[in-house]
Amino acid sequence: MGVPTYTNGTEPTFTRSVAHSSVTSQRPQAVDAANTVSYPSIARANAAVSIDKPNGDAGYSERFKDYTVLQQHVLFWDRDGDGQIFPYDTYIGFRELGFNILFSIFAMLIINVNFSYPTRLAYSYIPDVRFRLYVPSIHKAKHGSDSGVYDTEGRFLPQKFEDNFSKWDKRGDGTLTFWELFDLMKGNRCAADPYGWGAAFFEWMTTWLLIQQDGKVYKEDVRGVYDGSIFWRIREQRMKTKPWRQGYGLTGDYSKY
């Protein structure tokens, strides 16, 4: 399957910004995605791909080939592989990533209280008194005001992923600063959507706490958050003598947490 090319060899020839909408020029799309990624506007069911990794993490995608990218994102917390994530599973997962007790409890409450019922709706209208998340229907927990990288079925949209960096990475170095993440969140907000605003804030700030390095989050690390591969890597590294040296603005061993 070949990679589509543009009519002039580098960029599309149609109009991509207009004078009476400044954001169309301030937030340029990733016009070069199709030169590296085959059909970037078509969602990938089980692989998170990018310009830098047009095939994604092949070994990881193969390991979880029967799961969507959104499902892969949460599998780290499915401790026994039964398709259900209990509050305690969420807590343990965050502890293994290096978060302290208070934040892990906070994350458990935010995630399981808010996202249990949407995933439960695939099975029953009755809320789950144990506040489990159901992995097979995790796509029902997709909320508004997000980045749009996951589609409504939990697949991964390469074009949207590249667009987020094209629009908000002002230096073009494949990173986003703390304030650029805020710009990304504000730029993706939907009107009258406080639930989505809050969810996006929690997700991106948790991502910042986990993977920031030198005041930035790096593109391939963010891609690893989308498919969950970086969670396994952090856990594995923290189990070894060499600590995970990203996140929190620190460079030390997080075993004290």
Automatic annotation (TrEMBL):
Transmembrane segment boundaries: 97-115
UniProt keyword Cytoplasm, yes or no: no
Source species, domain of life: Eukaryota
A GO MF term: monooxygenase activity
Keyword Transmembrane helix: yes
Record's keyword terms, sorted: Membrane, Transmembrane, Transmembrane helix
Family recorded in the similarity comment: Belongs to the caleosin family.
Protein name per UniProt: Uncharacterized protein
Organism: Coniochaeta pulveracea
